[in-house]
Amino acid sequence: MKSKWETKTLGEVCKKGSSNVSLNKIQDNEGEYPIYGAKGFLKKVDFYHQDKPYISIIKDGAGVGRVNLQEAKSSVIGTLQYIIPKDDIDINFLYYFLLGIDFEKYSCGAAIPHIYFKDYEKEEIKVPSLEEQEQIVKILDEVFESISKSKENAEKNLKNAKELFESYLEEIFSNPKEGWEEKKLGEVCNLSAGGDVPKDNFSKNITEKYKVPIFSNGINGKELYGYTDIEKVTEPSITISARGTIGYPEIRRKPFYPIIRLIVVIPESKILNLDFLKYALSRINFTKSGTSIPQLTVPMIREYDIVFPKSLAGQTAIVQKLDSLSSQVKQLEEIYKQKLKDLEELKKSMLQKAFSGELTKNLN
């Protein structure tokens, strides 16, 4: 039976609750009642704040605006908010409504994002009868369960595609054939560390004068610090990220200027194929130095062993096989990533239909 929907504000259908619990307060507390943080379950303590099921929402820090259903006799820490439905509101109905809110528009704070209930409580919600709320919840439960299974399959296939390539790469380098040899990286490559930014020849924008890119790390080959007209490295080479996220190799075929977050590796062209070297470097688990910020140094990298076919033709043949497989894997990754994106869009679409009355308009 289709009921008349009444337009209300979020603040009219629920109330908020706050927590003053911090992690250091519960460090030594042990008990039987769960307490939750931004990343989920933290531990069990000897108290609880809510004796009935409720909704939690992250109000401070990373993940702000993320909502979860929580069980009775549990609590959250102070970076989360309690959202408690009023008597005529089904908690699951309210939960699904909150999933559809774009909390980003309510976020404030530069360093630590924050949302306030006084801002988002003004969101309008159309409320049907309790019976129809339960019907909507039942439909959404089924749809979301189906979407969840589809996402799990897509994520599993994506993982399998990546693992297929990694296993093939490992097979090649872990089982060197006859005609391979092993050398220290420093024996077959010229290694150097990036320097400081060229102060007198530097621009944030590319111009005819400042056309040589300045790379500040090697992750995905995309991060630029700026441009200069000084061609510090002119030979085809590989850069390795050496600070923070370490060990990521990236081929540089055009002249560039590396700065201190990079180590430049230039292979002896008569000994090593550049593309083969990148594949070889990508499977090395580089040991880091530094306690607070991981980093690599040229002396450290120089001592790593590398195995390779003595024949450049043999290296080229391996590169061709790896490039082909890598291309296939990337195509699969794009397919699965698009599928995941489509599933997220489907969830948004279903929520929009649910709270505009479309899901139940034909139910009697």
Helical run tally: 8
Rg result: 28 Å
Under CATH, the homologous superfamily of the largest domain reads: DNA methylase specificity domains
Overall pLDDT level: 90
What CATH architecture label of the largest domain applies?
Answer: Alpha-Beta Complex
Q: What's the CATH C level of the largest domain?
A: Alpha Beta
Number of domains: 3
Give the SSE order as H and E letters. EHEEEEEEEHHEHEHEEEEEEEHHEH
Note the beta-strand portion: 15-25%
Quaternary state reads single chain
Total count of strands: 18
Based on helices, strands and strand pairing, what is the structural class? alpha+beta
For the sheet with most strands, the description reads:
4 strands, antiparallel
Spatial strand arrangement across the major sheet: 2-8-5-6
Distance between the termini: 4 Å
Shape: elongated
As a percent range, the share of helical residues equals 25-40%
CATH topology assignment of the largest domain: Adenine-n6-DNA-methyltransferase TaqI, Chain A, domain 2
